[in-house]
Amino acid sequence: MNIFRLAGDMSHLFSILLLLLKIHTIKSCAGVSLKTQELYALVFATRYLDIFTGYISLYNTLMKMFFLWSSFTIVWYMRYHNVVRRSYDKDQDTFRHYFLILPCFILALLVHEKFTFLEVLWTFSLYLEAVAILPQLVLLQRTRNVDNLTGHYVFFLGAYRSFYILNWIYRYFTEQNYYKWITWISGLVQTALYADFFYYYVKSWRNSERLQLPA
Amino acid sequence: AKESRKKDEL
């Protein structure tokens, strides 16, 4: 484990804790896309099936369990919690997330490293994670005035992806035979999707203004 | 690329 990978994982963890804080403490999920959260739950459920088949480290297993638990907990809150579900911007969160799932699945059937059940699902989870943020970005664009916690949540998610790219570069130069094209390309696509958001986030932070996305 | 597939990342 290198410092970039650790920083990436910690940003990811922190972003989820921010979201849980907002939902659990403030009892509001305003500005949060349920579509994106459902996609993440599906991403983790399909990727971390390897919890049962291979052991890497206690760290890996605990992190995987946390990501699984937190993603399903967030979806549960937004769908079923008496107070939280009322703050959900259902009418604004209209992205057709089902249209992302099928193409990602077909792509995973076509482009993968091994044609086995776990391997195809793992590849599917990478493709889906790359685009899972889209409903959230569309929702942010629509609400325009982004509340602080939601803005920070998306920022730390994007930071997590950026640190992973640094981690891959570092590993490529320090380890032998370390290359993973599918992971890299889907990771690059995913990080690129944050570029526009990052621009406005940093701009509002530098001017100490509330984050506002252009129409 | 035999061992590069080890999935140690999250």
Describe, in plain words, how this protein is organized in 3D.
The complex is a heterodimer of chains A (215) and B (10). Chain A has 215 residues and is mostly helical. Chain A has one domain. Helix content of chain A is 70%, strand content 0%. Chain A contains nine helices and no strands. In chain A, helix 1 runs parallel beside helix 3 (58-80), helix 1 runs antiparallel to helix 7 and helix 2 packs antiparallel against helix 5. The mean pLDDT of chain A is 95. Chain B is mostly loops and 10 residues long. Chain B is 0% helix and 0% strand. Chain B has no helix or strand. Chain B is rod-shaped. The model of chain B has no long low-confidence stretch (mean pLDDT 68). Classes of the chains: A mainly alpha (215), B little secondary structure (10). Chain A: This is ER lumen protein-retaining receptor. Chain A: One of its GO terms (cellular component) is endoplasmic reticulum membrane. Chain A: It is a multi-pass membrane protein.
Secondary-structure map with pairings?
The complex is a heterodimer of chains A (about 220) and B (about 10).
Chain A: H1 3-25, H2 34-47, H3 58-80, H4 98-110, H5 117-131, H6 134-143, H7 148-174, H8 181-193, H9 195-206
Chain B: no helix or strand
Compact overview of the structure:
The complex is a heterodimer of chains A (215) and B (10). Chain A has 215 residues and is mostly helical.
Overall mean pLDDT of chain B stands at: 68
What series of H and E elements makes up the topology of chain A? HHHHHHHHH
Query: Could you give the count of β-strands of chain A?
Result: 0
How large a portion of the residues of chain A is in β-strands, by DSSP E? under 5%
- What is the terminal separation of chain B in angstroms? 20 Å
Which two chains share the most extensive interface? A-B, 21 and 9 residues
Number of distinct helices of chain A: 9
